[in-house]
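Researcher: Checking consistency across runs. Here is Carbon monoxide dehydrogenase again:
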Amino acid sequence: MSEFKMTTVEEMEAATNRLLETGAKVGADAWQFRVKNQTPHCKFGEQGVCCRICAMGPCRITPKAPRGICGCDAHGIVGRNFLKFTAGGAATHSDHGREICHTLYCAAEDGNYKVKDPEKLLRIAKEWGVETEGKDIYDLAHEMAEIGLMEYGKPFGYQRFLDRMPEGQKEKLIENEIAPRAIDREVSTSLHMAHMGCSSLPEALVKQSLRAGMADGWGGSMMGTEFSDVLFGTPKPIDTEANLGVMVAENVNIVVHGHDPSLSEMICEYADSPEMIAYAKEMGAKGITVSGVCCTSNEVAMRRGIPMAGNFLQQENVVLTGACEAIVVDVQCIFPALGPLSKCFHTKFVTTSPIAQMPDSEFIRFNAETAGENAKAIVKMAIENFKNRKPELVHIPDMKAKATVGYSVEAIVKTLDGVTNSQVDETGTTKPLLECITSGVIRGAVAMVGCNNPKIRPDYAHIELMKKLIANDIVVIASGCSAQAAAKAGLMDKSAKDICGAGLKRVCELADIPPVLHMGSCVDISRMMILAAELAKDSGLQINQLPVVGCAPEWMSEKAVSIGNYVVGTGIDTFLGVDPYVSGSSEMCELLTEGTRKWTGAAYTVETDIEKLTDLMIERIEEKRTALGI
Ligand code: XCC
Ligand code: SF4
């Protein structure tokens, strides 16, 4: 008998509407209203045919004006815009990775940051050919951090992590000029190419977009993920909860938001300390609840089981509960709207990074060296703010779902080991998973990633897609706001097996996993790349032959485009539910949906009809199976 009950998008919308009523009482603005003011969007922008990279413009392409003043056509303009978009994303993820390298460099036996997973550090050191024998683990950490930082600017060679690819793939990427060199170089080269009077040849612009993306996925993001694991621990399955109902009315609520776990890890530490809990009680609260929004939330959920209050388009809802003492942000995906919104409530909006400074916030500069003090000051500030709550404004929607998260590649390999009856001891490989796929018990896998976007009913596409995929025996691995959509709906609850096809249901039962596996934050999409590479190596196939596809149905950020480019660059077909501003150039559309195949074996599919998008993915997975004769 099925006991599984999903939280529906309708229920979530009703909860949001109730919160907007609170907002109306205090005169709060919200994205739902701003969207109306911005609609319809600029058509030139939508099609990608507006160019303002030099002061002769801005130039807009129309049938009557097919070229800009310099003579650039729509294909060149769309291509340059696409490349710049990618470079923005690659820079952002990679800079996050760089911050993590710096944090690793600060790690010390008696410091704020420790090496929590020394084995992983040793493993990567070995991979990089770094001598580990007889070395103090912190000396090694500092050495590795420095080598990692060099990957950003080294004058020669390609990204080290490319050696993780199946045989021949790195060479092929080098041959096609898609293999990323130094990370910063790929970002700079992209901006150089997109400067006035440089590249306007779509093919060259798309190639560089792929290369910049690869510098992110196989460079900056991968370093961010791997060294975060070294510092904070490699995620293992852990139980948690998701949706606004994780906030507790009687407690001091601190919401962490952004991406870099360096700050949120510290906040969690202090919020959990007896000293702070006692202080909260003294101030009239029962305790302290830390919950999260966006990828910072994913990071601490994966490693500590900290509950997820919501994803991208729920960030304002957190404040609208009237029960948020502090929303503490680091970098990326933070609405500047949180400043004025917090002013309508008692909420402290705390910015902490020089990278993300915003009006109407309290800036407490966070530093790896002074992390402990900074975190303590923030937690204290939140506690002391509890008394300023306006009880008549407090309403936390009674809505949350259970979720089991923490599926790093290491955890997936370990969990699936023993699912098959294989007699051979295959500990440490993806062979059990491959066996499930080859036998057809699982048809394939979809990597679901990305944001929310008001162009799509929030979470609707994520949830509908996932439901259909798992019903068709396709296992879903998810990260970012997509993972949070799944968690809120209940799809990361193990009982969600009841809505799977028979094959996937059996695997879920045997391995004791949910059908949608939380792999982490946006930078953790690098985990998905590692998993794909491992699957390819263990099966003797190339990555593009695997029945695996990527999907970002509700994406919105530049980072998402960079991700898309490295997923395609890695050889995985990628399905988008939102157009990346390229419809204004038939040549760019052709290149992205087919042309890249000759370089990487994969391409994009853009389809805004979600039902169709799902069918196309299932079709592609089945085509891959047929080609393999499985
Ligand atoms: Fe941001 Fe990473 Fe997108 Fe969510 S999913 S809206 S990028 S938080 Ni990466
Ligand atoms: Fe116009 Fe060319 Fe300048 Fe772009 S680069 S704004 S198309 S003149």
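Researcher: Does this match what you'd expect to see?
Model: One thing to look at in this run: The chain is about 50% helix and 10% strand.
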